[in-house]
Design a protein that fits this description.
The complex is a heterodimer of chains A (237) and B (132). Chain A has 237 residues and is an alpha+beta fold. Chain A folds into two domains: 1-91; 94-237, Heat Shock Protein 90. Chain A has helices at 4-59, 63-87, 98-109, 132-152, 186-189, 196-207; strands at residues 95-97, 119-124, 129-131, 161-169, 172-179, 211-217, 220-228. In chain A, strands 2-4-5-7-6 form a five-stranded mixed beta sheet. In chain A, strands 1-3 form a two-stranded antiparallel ribbon. In chain A, a hairpin with a 2-residue loop joins strand 4 (161-169) and strand 5 (172-179). In chain A, helix 3 packs parallel to helix 4. The longest helix of chain A is centred in the N-terminal third of the chain and has 56 residues, at 4-59. Chain B has one domain (2-131): Rossmann fold (3-Layer(aba) Sandwich), CATH 3.40.50.2300. Chain B contains five helices and six strands. In chain B, strand 3, helix 3 (61-70) and strand 4 (74-79) form a beta-alpha-beta unit. The longest helix of chain B is centred in the C-terminal third of the chain and has 15 residues, at 102-116. Chain B starts with a strand and ends with a strand. Classes of the chains: A alpha+beta (237), B alpha/beta (132). The A-B interface holds A 39-40, 43-44, 46-48, 50-52, 54-55, 58-59, 74, 77, 80-81, 83-84, 88, 103-104, 107-108, 110-113 and B 9, 11-12, 14-16, 18-19, 22-24, 54, 80-81, 97-107, 127-128.
Chain lengths: 237, 132
Amino acid sequence: MLCFSTVRRLERDYLAERAEGEALAATLQENRILLDEVNHRVKNSLQIVANLLRTQAMRHRSAEVRQELLDSSSRVLAIAEVHRRLYGEGAVYDTVELTDLIRSIAENAVPPTGGAEPAMTLATGTLLSAPVDTAVPVALIVNELLTNSYKHAFPDGRRGRVTVDMAVAGNEVRIDVADDGIGLPEEVAGSSGGGFGLNTARNLTRQLRGRLEIERLTPGTRFLLTFPMKPSAPTQA
Amino acid sequence: MKILIIEDEFLIAEGVSLTLQSAGHAVTGIAEDLPTALALAGQEKPDMAFVDIKLANGSNGLDVARALKAMGIACVFATGNPPNRAQAGGVGLGYIAKPFSPRVLVQTAAFVAGTLSPCGPASVAPHGFVTL
């Protein structure tokens, strides 16, 4: 039979544990609100940076500078696409689904206006969780390759097609970006040719420990990005 | 199409305005809170508005969209905090989530223009636009 003092002690312990649980729940709720606010700020700030570059571009007299600023704005939005998936509704903290990410990058890379937009097909049948340190460079590389195609492959209103395919073979991911445009000049297709964008894509490929192959088609150009990636288990938010 | 922008971040509003103008739309003004939005909407009679949720001076985009709907102006939320259908309460056509690309913005404006035309929408809802 429990004595009175034991009952009182158990009651005190129970109340203390309950208070501790309530305090923890309140702290957790505060942290969630704080995290939501920080995420909101990150997304807003990335939108501001992208718009700032775009606004400066559209007001610049030099067509060359304008294009460079528009390209930078597009790169910021590619990084923002990764962040949107990290912190959006139902998101996980440390991984991003690559197929959905590539689809958005590809949709965003098509010029917003213009009479003769090349058609795009996207076949990414595999769902694949990528860690953030893979997703960001992949987003930037694919954005760079697509931007390159839309910018250079179809001059003077030439019509054509851009395709993006993604496949997984073992522990390797292969992303194939191709167009049927006028084709890259031979000196650009070489191992160090091209401008800032293509060289950034090459350097980011090295960061991924991957390979970027450029093939001159008749007609067009094919970029094949291959990089190793182990399947990773996402952490639910 | 005549478009009103309701956004309290100047740099975002200016980029949105230039992008919409370059796509052939007329931007009738930029409002940072509810009173300014209502004044501009009354003067300029826009066809649609892009509305952020968190606005200046304690204004809320949902209240703005409710008031604009009563004036016959279609609203699309452009926000980092998209409302769900219950929160929106039927006052917005849908939303585009920040950070959004110029293409998503321009295609959404074109889609809304189609929705408002007597012939109905010319295309399916664009990628990046979520219907409410």
